Structures are given as structure tokens and as C-alpha cells.
């Protein structure tokens, strides 16, 4: 029997409705949750992501401040802007759209954001608190993966989880979050230096692919009945599409679906959850002021 397809869009709608209700409660107390989104340059993909975030904020009854800087903007100018937003009490969250132009240090920019407004969860203080299990903003994509598992009813208690990819945005945070006591999975983090990868992935009851290589995970790498979460979003050239490309995940969806128990599609799986969890982080940032 083919795997159950996990509908990330429907679960994301549920999460966004939760954010909308909480935002409405704040507005009733005179607080309008506000996210400042800074975009440097005119990268088409980044513009698309920012537009999606602005739309989600509006639908949730929150304010989005769309701040655009030219590609030529200096690092000092961006850091000065972040400093002003840190001091602005009407702004509850600050998000700098990545990647930044090469002449600007992403590390310095991320570190400049007040951790109390770091709704991306990328600040070193946020990361440290996450590792220690303290209250903090959890990076949106890893948090979205956990929410998918929870909403789908996939058991994580004592389960063997394998994460493919060690990025600071997805792989590493996921490995930490999955090992938290309330999730309680036994975690293996794999990467380009991992030997005998298939032997490891075939032990996974939960396999999360976040390696950025289209179709890398094949059916022979999957334990029968496993939950397969595909975080990959890869653009594949496709002249038949109006855009000239199609989206593909890190998992060979058609083949793996015949062997797995659950699987997320690309698009429509993890992607919608990222913005949904961002909405919750913005609301949580604003709730501190109640």
C-alpha cells in the first residue's frame, strides 16, 4: 500500500488560524503584532518569499513592515537599520531575508538582531537556549517538521530518527529538537562524510531529508513503513513549465512512496509549515508585551 501523503498545506492552515486567533486577542488589548521584513537587493526568489510572508501576516491580522534596500546598501546601513528596529517597541519581530549580498556578513547581521525579536531563531543566543531546552524562538522549518509529525500522529517516543544534512538552519536544529525529552527520539545526523549511508537510513523509523540534492533518497534507502519528511526544495529545469523549472525534493517521491508509511510531497509538504510557524513566532514575540 502506498504511503500516506502528509498534507502540509492543510496543517499549515490550522497553524495559521491559531496565529490569527491569538493575534486577534492581542489586538483586543491594543497590541498589533508587527514583523519588520528587510530585503536587500532584488533576488527573484527572495522577493517571492517576502511576498508570501507579507500575505500571511495580513491574513493573520498582523502588521508587516516591508523594508527594501538596494543591492548596493552597505553593511553599516543595514546594521543601523536593525538597531533602530530593535529600539522600536511597535516592532515585535525582525527578519532579514537571506541570502544577503556577498559584501554583507550574515553572521554580523543575525547577531545584531535583538534575541527578543529574533523570530527566525538564528541568533546565537536563540541557538544556545534551544540547545539548553530553554524558552526561545525555534527556527521555523525545523519547528514545522515537528508540528507535522505531531499533527499526523507519528510516534517519536523512542523512535530512531535519521536527519540527512547538517545545515545551521535545518539539519542541526532538527537533530537537537528531535532529541528533546518531550520528543524523545534517538537521533543520527548524517552528512557528506557519512559512510555506508544506506545502512543507517534503513534503520530509521523517521527519515528527514534536508541535504539539497534532488532525488538523493531512493527507495532502497528506506525502512518499510518509515515516515519520510522531505525538506528539500530544488529547482529543476523544465521547459514545459511556464516558469521554466519545477520543484523537486531530496526524495525520489514516486519510488519511496511505495515503501514508506508516510511521506511529504514537494511542494505542499514542509514548505507551507515554514511560514505558518513564523506567524506563531511573531505572535509569541508580541504576547510578551501583554
Description:
With 290 residues, the protein is of the alpha/beta class. The chain has two domains: 31-116, 3-Layer(aba) Sandwich (Rossmann fold); 140-271, NAD(P)-binding Rossmann-like Domain (Rossmann fold, 3-Layer(aba) Sandwich), CATH 3.40.50.720. The chain has helices spanning 8-27, 44-59, 75-87, 106-112, 124-132, 140-152, 171-178, 197-201, 253-257, 271-287; strands at 4-5, 34-40, 63-69, 93-96, 160-164, 186-190, 206-209, 227-230, 234-237, 245-248, 262-263. Helix 2 (44-59) links the parallel strand 2 and strand 3 (63-69).
Entry keywords:
single chain; three-stranded parallel sheet; 290 residues; Rossmann fold; alpha/beta; 2 domains; 17% strand
Helix percent band: 25-40%
List the uncertain runs: none
Distance from first to last alpha carbon: 50 Å
Please identify the top-level CATH class of the largest domain: Alpha Beta
- What is the arithmetic mean of pLDDT? 96
* Largest sheet, strands/sense/barrel: 6 strands, parallel
CATH topology of the largest domain: Rossmann fold
**What is the overall silhouette?**
globular
Named CATH architecture of the largest domain: 3-Layer(aba) Sandwich
- The count of domains is 2
Assigned CATH superfamily of the largest domain: NAD(P)-binding Rossmann-like Domain
Strand sequence of the main sheet, in spatial order? 1-11-8-7-5-6
Number of H- or I-type helical stretches: 10
> How many E-type strands?
11
Order of helices and strands: EHEHEHEHHHEHEHEEEEHEH
Amino acid at each position: 500500500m502506498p504511503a500516506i501523503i502528509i498534507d502540509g498545506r492543510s496543517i499549515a492552515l490550522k497553524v495559521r488560524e491559531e496565529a490569527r486567533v491569538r493575534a486577534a486577542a492581542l489586538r483586543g488589548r491594543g497590541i498589533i503584532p508587527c514583523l519588520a521584513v528587510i530585503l536587500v537587493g532584488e533576488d527573484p526568489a527572495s522577493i517571492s518569499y517576502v511576498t508570501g510572508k507579507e500575505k500571511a501576516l495580513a491574513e493573520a491580522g498582523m502588521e508587516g513592515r516591508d523594508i527594501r534596500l538596494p543591492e548596493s546598501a552597505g553593511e553599516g546601513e543595514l546594521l543601523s537599520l536593525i538597531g533602530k528596529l530593535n529600539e522600536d517597541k511597535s516592532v515585535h519581530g525582525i527578519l532579514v531575508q537571506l541570502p544577503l549580498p556577498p559584501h554583507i556578513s550574515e553572521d554580523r547581521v543575525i547577531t545584531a538582531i535583538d534575541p527578543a525579536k529574533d523570530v527566525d531563531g538564528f541568533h546565537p543566543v536563540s541557538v544556545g537556549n534551544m540547545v539548553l531546552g530553554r524558552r526561545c524562538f525555534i527556527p521555523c522549518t525545523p519547528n514545522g517538521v515537528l508540528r507535522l509529525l505531531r499533527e499526523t500522529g507519528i510516534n517519536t517516543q523512542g523512535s530512531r530518527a535519521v536527519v540527512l544534512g547538517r545545515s545551521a538552519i535545518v539539519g542541526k536544529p532538527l537533530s537537537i529538537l528531535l532529541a528533546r525529552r518531550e520528543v524523545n527520539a534517538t537521533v543520527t545526523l548524517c552528512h557528506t562524510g557519512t559512510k555506508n549511508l544506506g545502512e543507517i537510513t534503513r534503520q530509521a523509523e523517521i527519515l528527514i531529508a534536508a541535504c539539497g540534492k534532488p532525488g538523493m533518497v531512493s527507495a532502497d534507502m528506506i525502512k518499510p513503513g518509515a515516515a519520510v519528511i522531505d525538506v528539500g526544495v530544488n529547482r529543476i529545469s523544465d521547459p514545459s513549465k511556464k516558469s521554466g523549472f519545477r520543484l523537486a525534493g531530496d526524495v525520489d517521491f514516486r519510488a519511496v512512496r511505495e515503501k514508506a508509511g508516510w511521506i511529504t510531497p514537494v511542494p505542499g509538504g514542509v514548505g507551507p509549515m515554514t511560514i505558518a510557524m513564523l506567524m506563531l513566532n511573531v505572535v509569541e514575540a508580541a504576547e510578551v508585551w501583554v
